[in-house]
């Protein structure tokens, strides 16, 4: 596409460190004024299988990746079979000569082939993961990627001095060998800057965790489930200096109930899981809603149903998450589209959870959770904590669930003098008592039920005002409007940018907050659209069904992808042209 | 804080003669003896007849989901370790849906107390088999001639096996012992469990007050019994049937989960200032 970019991919069995090789290349570039987009693909295996790490580099900020490769580094035959067809003309293929045989019929003519016995460079008795240093040394020599940049990254990566030296030694040895053997004299096609402005390189889960820490999250509980659980490990790692407690629970049911307990006791709390774990949490989601205990939960989607595809992406939990639980109650569901939104919307949602005392769900997916992107530092000065209505100790005759015009009642935290009350999963009156069965309430049950339900829904008008639910990207008027949510954002943005350079007038309506659904705003917008294309990572057009339920509108075209892999801009552009023709 | 302060104006909905009244009174008595600050005390219950106790007692309370009192209590204790946290519920709630939580809460020795109202039947759903129903028991879901085909869970044995550090059994008919055990359990720094035998006057016509009274045998009357000895506790705990020991089976001081966390050495999580937290160091690490 129009970006001046360079894409390399490292592939091999799990255990060879292809993902760390890729992330080191990205990190070095990131430090040198370039922008990186890193996509990992891996099966649910500890050893073997095919792991790949694609690194796209550019002089400009990147929001997506493309599959065509300028460089392919191979540790295994399977990696060759899988990615040979992605090679651009004139690409470089570096491969472990002991394990890979190249079938030249499968690659473009003019491909530079570089067989190297990569594993021979690993000192005897060392782990094969050091093969990635051999790979990087050769990569640097073959592509012109500056060697000192990689050495700097390795120095930071390995804290053990011996390990650091061993890796640098391998790197330099292979580098020298390659220069000698292949007589390549390459200049890397992108410019490396010295003393560039620092940027972060982080993935969606890291961004969410960072925001949670900034928002004062002090407690987390969870059960490991890919791709949601790295939020939990980042909270453990980064939360260390902030007094955060993480409790690994016996199951997801325990995890969410621990979060509810901690939140009831006054600590900001967040959990993270994927669809299967979220399914186990559903009963307690309703409990949080009924008891009006603030709750923040991340669901990083993977393929489903059931165990599904543990390490692959999907956008098929939307309907589930928006409707999960028996009964009726308002909830907030946000679907961040990129790393930046992961951060700012997570911070916002902690405030919203406290302010409205409703369950809040951050819906991401494996692609967003796991892909690393260059990102300037987040602006944190303007971020202000809002704990919502809290009980003041001088209040007389406190009612925890007092009916108020905006549906929100002051929350007393255990330990506060005069705030004793019962928080409950039962339908209840203003004082929290169960309305069914108690003699005192028996005659009023219908009235209490209506008042309690209306109380929850009276929160909606203010919630809606607080949510930046829709974002329009591109021109106000367009011949085609793309409607989408979540991690498809980046690929769509690049596709419409390319489309506009080709003279097409396309815009993109991003639905950032899906529940409560921004009906009025959406209806107003839809009056102006000419033609629409809905893009989603599922089979049944789930946002489409929600859109239709709330507005009666049916998009003109759909681009639905449910092959377990992310969207790329070029395919979206093809779809755009198809529906416009 | 006076004991009477723990009363609320609402009238319990338990059946006349229900064992829950006795447990309710014993709990109020224990809170009084301990002179606990009720503002600093939280009761987390599950769902069931016994769990309704949280509707009637004037501490901070949270009536959770069926089977989930322990994880909620865990969250509360970790968020504010200065609170006295008690979990309560029936044996169906705790040994059915809640069994996983029971096992794991015990092995982590969190400093909370768990009082299990054990009437060997499901009451609120009107008479189904409970995990503690005796073999052969006729219930709505296990009709004659076979009755219940599964071995009952012996809560004391279970608690001892999974690492609870204070394990007792009481009978609601012995109210003084029950209240005293509650006092000891709440004082105990660690996960304390009391299996409280209580009749269900409406749905359990076998395990009545009389049935229990004919069988219970106070441990304190057993000469030379030492509650420090886990093996002795396990073999005494195995007794169930013609003789049912009541009293303190086992007590052991072990490090608590909450006490071991350095994050909880000082200010509770819930009281930490969260305004203006600086994350620049992490952002720099990510470069």
Explain what you see.
- The complex is a heterodimer of chains A (581) and B (287).
- Helices cover 36% and strands 20% of the residues of chain A.
- Chain A is built from 18 helices and 21 strands.
- In chain A, helix 1 crosses helix 4, helix 6 crosses helix 7 and helix 15 packs across helix 18.
- Chain B is built from 10 helices and 10 strands.
- In chain B, the strands form 2 sheets. An 8-stranded mixed sheet of chain B has the order 2-1-3-4-8-7-10-9, with helices on both faces.
- The radius of gyration of chain B is 20 Å and the shape is globular.
- At the A-B interface, strand 7, helix 6, helix 8, helix 9 and strand 15 of A face strand 2, helix 2, helix 4 and helix 10 of B.
- Strand 15 of chain A pairs parallel with strand 2 of chain B.
What is the structure about, briefly put?
The complex is a heterodimer of chains A (581) and B (287). By secondary structure, chain A is of the alpha/beta class.
**Uncertain regions of chain B: pLDDT < 50 for 5+ in a row?**
none
Radius of gyration of chain B: 20 Å
- Compute the separation of the termini of chain B in Å: 55 Å
What is the correct CATH architecture of chain B?
3-Layer(aba) Sandwich
CATH superfamily of chain B: Thiamin diphosphate (ThDP)-binding fold, Pyr/PP domains
Shape of chain A: globular
Strand segment tally of chain A:
21
The order of strands across the largest sheet of chain A is 6-5-4-1-3-2-14-7
The largest sheet of chain B has its strands arranged as 2-1-3-4-8-7-10-9
Task: Give the number of domains of chain A.
Answer: 3
| CATH topology value of chain B | Rossmann fold
């Amino acid at each position: 596409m129009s970006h001046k970019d360079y894409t390399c991919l490292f592939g091999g069995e799990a255990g060879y460190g292809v993902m760390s090789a890729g992330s080191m290349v990205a990190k070095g570039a990131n430090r040198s004024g370039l922008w990186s987009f890193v996509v990992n693909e891996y099966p649910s295996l500890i050893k073997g299988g095919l792991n790949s790490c694609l690194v796209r580099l550019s002089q400009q900020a990147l929001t997506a990746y493309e599959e065509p490769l300028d460089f392919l580094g191979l540790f295994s035959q399977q990696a060759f079979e899988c990615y040979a067809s992605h090679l651009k003309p004139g690409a470089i293929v570096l491969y472990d000569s002991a394990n890979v045989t190249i079938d030249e019929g499968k690659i473009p003519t003019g491909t530079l082939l570089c067989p190297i016995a990569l594993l021979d460079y690993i000192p005897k008795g060392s782990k094969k993961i050091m093969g990635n240093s051999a790979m990087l040394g050769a990569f640097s020599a073959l592509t012109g990627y500056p060697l000192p940049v990689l050495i700097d990254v390795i120095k930071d990566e390995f804290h053990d001095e011996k390990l650091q030296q061993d890796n640098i030694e391998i790197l330099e040895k292979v580098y020298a060998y390659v220069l000698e053997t292949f007589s390549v004299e390459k200049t890397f096609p992108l410019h490396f800057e010295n003393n560039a402005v620092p940027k972060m390189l982080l993935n969606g889960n890291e961004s969410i965790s960072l925001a949670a820490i900034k928002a004062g999250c002090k407690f987390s509980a969870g059960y490991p489930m890919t791709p949601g659980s790295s939020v939990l490990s980042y909270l453990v790692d980064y939360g260390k200096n902030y007094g955060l407690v993480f409790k690994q629970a016996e199951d997801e049911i325990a995890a969410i109930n621990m979060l509810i307990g901690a939140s009831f006791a006054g600590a900001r709390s967040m959990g993270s899981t994927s669809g299967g774990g979220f399914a186990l949490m559903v009963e307690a989601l309703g409990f949080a809603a009924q008891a009006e205990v603030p709750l923040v939960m991340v669901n990083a989607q993977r393929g489903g149903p059931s165990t599904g595809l543990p390490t692959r992406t999907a956008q098929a939990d939307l309907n589930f998450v928006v409707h999960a639980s028996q009964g009726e109650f308002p909830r907030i569901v946000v679907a961040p589209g990129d790393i930046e939104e992961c951060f700012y919307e997570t911070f916002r949602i902690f405030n919203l959870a406290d302010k409205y005392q409703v369950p809040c769900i951050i819906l991401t997916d494996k692609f967003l959770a796991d892909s690393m992107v260059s990102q300037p530092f987040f602006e944190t000065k303007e971020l202000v904590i809002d704990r919502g209505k809290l009980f003041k100790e001088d209040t007389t005759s406190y009612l925890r669930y007092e009916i108020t015009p905006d549906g929100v009642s002051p929350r007393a935290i255990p330990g506060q003098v005069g705030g004793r009350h019962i928080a409950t999963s039962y339908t209840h009156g203003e004082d929290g008592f169960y309305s069914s069965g108690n003699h005192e309430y028996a005659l009023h049950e219908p009235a209490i039920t209506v008042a309690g339900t209306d109380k929850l829904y009276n929160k909606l008008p203010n919630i809606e005002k607080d949510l930046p639910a829709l974002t329009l990207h591109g021109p106000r008027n367009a011949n085609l409007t793309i409607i989408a949510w979540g991690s498809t954002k980046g690929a769509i943005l690049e596709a419409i940018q390319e489309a506009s350079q080709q003279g097409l007038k396309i815009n993109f309506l991003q639905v950032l907050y899906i529940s409560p659904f921004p009906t009025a705003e959406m209806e107003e917008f839809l009056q102006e659209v000419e033609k629409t294309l809905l893009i989603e990572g599922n089979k049944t057009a789930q946002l489409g069904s929600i859109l239709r339920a709330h507005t009666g509108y049916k998009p003109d075209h759909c681009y639905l992808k449910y092959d377990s892999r992310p969207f790329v801009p070029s395919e979206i552009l093809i779809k755009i042209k198809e529906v416009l023709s | 804080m006076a004991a009477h302060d723990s009363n609320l104006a609402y009238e319990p909905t338990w059946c006349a003669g229900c064992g829950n009244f006795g447990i309710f009174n014993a709990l109020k008595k224990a809170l009084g003896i301990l002179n606990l600050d009720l503002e600093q005390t939280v009761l987390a219950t599950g769902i069931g007849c016994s769990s309704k106790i949280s509707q009637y007692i004037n501490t901070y309370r949270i009536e959770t989901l069926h089977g989930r009192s322990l994880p909620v209590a865990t969250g509360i204790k970790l968020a504010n370790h200065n609170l006295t946290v008690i979990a309560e519920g029936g044996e169906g709630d705790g040994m059915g849906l809640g069994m996983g939580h029971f096992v794991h809460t015990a092995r982590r020795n969190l400093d909370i107390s768990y009082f299990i109202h054990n009437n060997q039947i499901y009451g609120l759903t009107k008479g189904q088999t409970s995990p503690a129903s005796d073999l052969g028991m006729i219930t709505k879901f296990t009709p004659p001639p076979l009755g219940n085909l599964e071995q009952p869970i012996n809560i004391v044995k279970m608690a001892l096996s999974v690492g609870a550090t204070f394990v007792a059994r009481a009978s609601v008919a012995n109210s003084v012992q029950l209240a005293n055990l509650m006092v000891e359990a709440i004082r105990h720094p660690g996960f304390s469990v009391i299996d409280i035998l209580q009749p269900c006057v409406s749905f359990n016509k076998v395990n009545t007050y009389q049935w229990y009274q004919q069988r219970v045998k106070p441990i304190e009357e057993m000469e030379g019994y030492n509650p420090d000895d886990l093996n002795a506790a396990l073999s005494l705990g195995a007794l169930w049937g013609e003789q049912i020991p009541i009293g303190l089976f086992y007590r052991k001081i072990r490090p608590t989960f909450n006490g071991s966390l350095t994050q909880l050495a000082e200010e509770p999580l819930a009281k930490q200032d969260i305004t203006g937290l600086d994350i620049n160091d992490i952002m720099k690490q990510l470069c």
